[in-house]
């Protein structure tokens, strides 16, 4: 109780008033001592010294804390404030500031890694695009050679465009001011549209896509963004499901939540990969031969979280994967 600055100052203040009052009553009115003024002055000075000591300790800790804060910048975010010689609100303030530094440090590291990953993803298609154009311009060629070069260049520009679109989606999901124009929309209609899209995407691999959705489910957010998130999961399911496999899309609801599950009969995800599949640019051991930037699931999770939802995954190698998306109803 007495470790708090507030309680110590309060006790000192009330105690000083009580002591002064009692002393004045005893010295002046009860004992009527001739040198009462001397004792009164002595008591006043004693209380003043106690008060000064408390205030000095407070200001000393605050000065030390302030000087340490001034020394920390973006270049040394791994520094922490230690050696606070007090067990009170100032120590709590230092602890809170250290926690803030932890969050900032982790955020800086994530952004630095993200920039490095984006640069790496853009480097390969840009290099391929440049070399294709340079080879095409080295000497005169037949029209068919130019067409082939243009097709390869177009393919790389599509890859660049896809990566940049993914980066923009991630930036949107982490920028609250971009999410002010949210509104209610019918999730059942969105799932029906996505089912139709999934069936078209799965035709080439002859994958059967079925769906079952409860009617009139309304959620709050951005229909196009949430559609993109769910479509990323569907796209993954199609990529990793073998020919003539099956994908099932189901939506159920409770009084407060809507649950969307996407189940496939694909190759499954190893336990080692499962804990990382939502990381940016992470591509598991089973994705080596599948085209993609490794941003799809990271975008899906970021968008779903921005809609106050959550996403879960269960998978077994050789048996398939189940993604479950939980969203609050309007």
From TrEMBL:
Biological source species: Candidatus Roizmanbacteria bacterium RIFCSPHIGHO2_02_FULL_38_11
Q: Which GO terms describe its cellular component?
A: plasma membrane
Q: What is the lineage of its organism?
A: Bacteria, Candidatus Roizmaniibacteriota
EC number(s) on file:
2.7.13.3
Which regions form coiled coils?
none
Per the database record, which ranges form the HAMP domain?
56-109
State where the protein is found.
Answer: Membrane
Q: Which UniProt keywords apply?
A: Kinase, Membrane, Phosphoprotein, Transferase, Transmembrane, Transmembrane helix, Two-component regulatory system
Q: Which SMART domains match?
A: HAMP (SM00304), HATPase_c (SM00387), HisKA (SM00388)
Q: Identify this protein by name.
A: histidine kinase
Instruction: Give all residue intervals belonging to the Histidine kinase domain.
Output: 117-330
Transmembrane domains' residue ranges: 9-31, 37-59
Reaction catalysed by this enzyme: ATP + protein L-histidine = ADP + protein N-phospho-L-histidine
**Chief location category:** membrane
Molecular functions (GO terms):
phosphorelay sensor kinase activity
The record's Pfam families line, in alphabetical order, gives:
HAMP, HATPase_c, HisKA
InterPro entries reported in the protein's UniProt record? HAMP_dom, HATPase_C_sf, HATPase_dom, His_kinase_dom, HisK_dim/P_dom, HisK_dim/P_sf, Sig_transdc_His_kin-like_C, TCS_sensor_his_kinase
The top EC class is: transferase
